[in-house]
Amino acid sequence: MSAGSLSPRTTQLGTAVLAGALFGVGLPLSGMTAPRKVLGFLDFAGQWDPSLVFVMAGAVGVHFVAYRLIRRRARPLFAESFAVPAQGRIDPRLLVGSALFGIGWGLAGYCPGPGIASLGSGTVQAVVFVAAMLAGLLIGKQIEGQLQRRAHERGATSAPERAS
């Protein structure tokens, strides 16, 4: 079967696998899967290790250029339209999520991608981090669902009052 005869879904999946593999190989090469290195990078008041600044600057630089080039296209290569967030404002959900991300990163030395990639090392620390991350995601979904239900109930009970 030639590359031209692959289905769009197969091509999209193959591209995602290749991008994920490249990301997965790059994480340990850059030091992002080494909690001590990450914690050293976050330790501004102690023995700060600035080496990850170069990793982040490289990633931001590549994204900055690639994003502008890609957005000039009428549509993505493997999808009908671009998936760009419609909401551009900073809201409480974003602030809380960012704070929790930063706290977790600072405590464990892992963020989600490197944590998952580190599962391959078999360390207890990586397993505990990923388990805690998944538990946090589930708890967050539960809390969000409860908040949405409460907001919906308040809207449903106050709607008739507004009509009168």
Compact overview of the structure:
With 164 residues, the chain is mainly alpha-helical.
Descriptive report:
With 164 residues, this protein is an all-alpha fold. The chain has six helices and no strands. It has helices at 8-30, 35-42, 51-70, 92-108, 112-117, 124-163. Helix 2 crosses helix 4 (92-108). The longest helix is centred in the C-terminal third of the chain and has 40 residues, at 124-163. The N and C termini lie far apart (68 Å). The relative contact order is 0.08. The mean pLDDT is 87.
Keywords for this structure?
164 residues; single chain; globular; mainly alpha; 6 helices
Blueprint (SSEs and pairs):
Layout: H1 8-30, H2 35-42, H3 51-70, H4 92-108, H5 112-117, H6 124-163
Helix pairs in contact: 2-4
Q: In total, how many beta strands?
A: 0
Count every helix, treating DSSP H or I runs of 4 or more residues as helices.
Answer: 6
Q: Uncertain regions: pLDDT < 50 for 5+ in a row? A: none
Biggest sheet overview: none
Q: What general outline do the C-alpha atoms trace? A: globular
Number of domains: 1
Q: How much beta, percentage-wise?
A: under 5%
